[in-house]
Predict the structure.
Amino acid sequence: MNEALVRLVPLAVLLGAAGCTTDSDVPPPVAEEVAPPSATAQVHMVYTGVSEREDLRGLDYEVTAELGEPVNGDVACDLAAPEGTVTVPVTVRLVNTHDPDDADTVDVADGEPVRWSTPRYLVAEPVGVDGPLRWAAERDGHPCTDQPDLESFISVRWEHREQATLTGYLTGVPDGDRDGVGVRLEFVRELWEVHQGEPEPLTVTY
């Protein structure tokens, strides 16, 4: 046998052995993290309320709604998911974006002064399911509410960049395919007369 060929055979065997791996040596694929469904809207408007005083009021805040993963075990607000469904948490975060020191802030509309207000109206409704949708109280031991209780979470002295976070629970969500299920938020009351800006409803779904 050719002497050069004899030298090459052991080297090839060594290289092949070094390159061999078993299935147990291969690391499992890393699961891709999926961000929870969320949506953000800016609420900026000047309106006339429903009181006897017809002065102009302004609202200027950012709102973010986020849907979470199903809740296991006991659920707040005495909710029980029907068979074949689950309960998912809904987080709504409001941030005061009105800066009174901003020179670009509009304090006059239609020639009248604007009184910037604390948000007190927010309606949340289920999308894709019948619900129910309930909201945890600001303090433990207090009853849950059918709608977000802004008055309990946001003080009248709500300052620039201050946040308020509310947590709700949506029941009756299919245990499996949750596509198209979520919540819709409304920011404007029907009786209000809006003079500047009219925020569109905010919808977030799986």
Observations:
- The longest strand covers residues 56-67.
- The chain has one domain: 36-205.
- Residues 40 and 201 are 11 Å apart (CA to CA).
